[in-house]
């Protein structure tokens, strides 16, 4: 059982209706995990369970938003946008992946992983902020032209380097686990000595496909060679995005290193972010997180 799927009291925010809904959502997740292991009729049962999870989550979002409005919560607008992003982008993208793969085990696990990770981060970080247990972590809610420009820059760069189409899964990625990944932290300094932290998480299947294609050798293991090439690809992606965003002359790379999934999770929960995007290439997921 994944650690993120376990319920404990740290998920309680002290609002009974919200806490009950969260427990219900995790209960559905537990059921989906059990069904995903059933080789007989688990595929069909998971399909029905996923529909139930989606409908229950959407109703919960509406109820939670009504509560936030009733208490005059100052972070309502950004919090609602996080709900909208999950409802209108993440869930449809995951459903598309499920349908196109005919509810394959991999796509079901992606769905569970994203949803469990999102719930965990959302409750601990966003929902606890509703009742003042912690402060809201989002510096600015970038929408409109800035976000569109970044998405287009990333989509174009990923397509050129990996030769794969991209689909935006989330504009407010919350650090949720989407499978075994190569995670890289890049540190940039501006000409005015300001620091920018950039995190990229590339699913191993995506890295292996890219490096296999580059070397024209079938690869199935993330060894040192693959990691080294993957790291350089990530640096080049960041550089190309900077060029397309007219930032290349303002910032220069001063440090790059790999991170474990736990280190990434800790850095994510502790940090404040300006942009946090998640893409699906059809061959693996790709996260791009920036803190300026």
Give me some keywords for this one.
single chain, 292 residues, alpha+beta, six-stranded antiparallel beta sheet, 8 helices, 15% strand, globular, disordered N terminus
Gist?
The chain is α+β, with helices and mostly antiparallel strands and 292 residues long. It has helices at 16-36, 42-70, 76-100, 105-130, 145-162, 204-215, 224-244, 261-270, and strands at residues 167-170, 181-190, 195-203, 251-259, 275-280, 285-291.
Provide an overview of this structure:
Helices cover 55% and strands 15% of the residues. The protein has helices at residues 16-36, 42-70, 76-100, 105-130, 145-162, 204-215, 224-244, 261-270; strands at 167-170, 181-190, 195-203, 251-259, 275-280, 285-291. A six-stranded antiparallel β-sheet has the order 1-5-6-3-2-4. Strand 2 and strand 3 (195-203) form a beta hairpin. Helix 3 (76-100) packs antiparallel against helix 4 (105-130). The longest helix is centred in the N-terminal third of the chain and has 29 residues, at 42-70. The chain starts with 15 loop residues before the first helix and ends with a strand.
